[in-house]
Amino acid sequence: MYLPPQFIAKDATIAPELMRLHPLAQLISVDGEGLPFITPLPLHVVEEGGGLTLLGHVARPNPHAGYLRERPTAVVVFQGPQAYMTTRVYPDLVRVPTWSYLAVHATVQARIVEGLEDKDRLLKHLIHDHDPAYADQWRGLGEAYQHKMMAGIVAFELRVTDLQCKVKLNQHRPESHVAMHAAYAAGNADEQALAGWMQRLGMVLPTAKGTA
């Protein structure tokens, strides 16, 4: 993605954190006609040995599984909080509006997970992420039913080979930061999250009012 230097995340912990906070990713592959094929799906993040691996699955009828087998290189996009930014945050009027957002783009190499035990382990990671209480119910469904359900999906590991993390919060316009933070802190959930990221990145003082 287009990544001006001022918007590159300097802290390596930001990308995995965004992935976990916003797990519904867009998995992008190339179809048989050379066009992008996109599947929204939740992914579990594994940090191990200094690298990142993403775990997920699609329904067996989804052609995306075939594209991953044929062309294992894919791209995964995670979208963090985002919101409009008004020109009213500037002290002068010769400005244009823009959009603030955080996003992660990962180039990945896919490996299909075939074994039932490996699939079950992968599913338990996702269950733990989103509904830990369901784990007991899953175990109580019976082996035959579990195997039937797992036969209906194609599970995979996506090993991250390149990572881009963009934090676009007007870092290069310090004259706007105080007013921008105040506006976002008083806004909706996404805007409050952006105010929190401004605080974390040291763009406003920790004692600023309205901190999200």
Order of adjacent strands in the largest pleated sheet: 2-1-5-6-7-4-3
The CATH superfamily is Electron Transport, Fmn-binding Protein, Chain A
What's the helix count? 7
H/E element sequence:
HEEEEHEEHHHEHH
In the CATH hierarchy, the third-tier topology is known as Pnp Oxidase, Chain A
Shape: elongated
Approximate strand percentage: 25-35%
Can you tell me about this structure?
The chain is of the alpha+beta class and 212 residues long. The chain has a single domain, classed as Pnp Oxidase, Chain A, CATH 2.30.110. It is 31% helix and 34% strand. The protein contains seven helices and seven strands. It has a seven-stranded antiparallel sheet with strand order 2-1-5-6-7-4-3. A hairpin with a 5-residue loop joins β1 and β2. α6 packs across α7. It is elongated and about 65 Å long. The C terminus is likely disordered.
Secondary-structure map with pairings?
Elements: H1 14-21, E1 24-30, E2 36-42, E3 44-48, E4 51-59, H2 64-70, E5 73-85, E6 98-113, H3 116-130, H4 134-139, H5 143-151, E7 153-168, H6 177-185, H7 189-200
Antiparallel strand pairs: 1-2, 1-5, 3-4, 4-7, 5-6, 6-7
Helix pairs in contact: 6-7
For the structure shown, list the relevant keywords.
single chain; 212 residues; alpha+beta; 7 strands; disordered C terminus
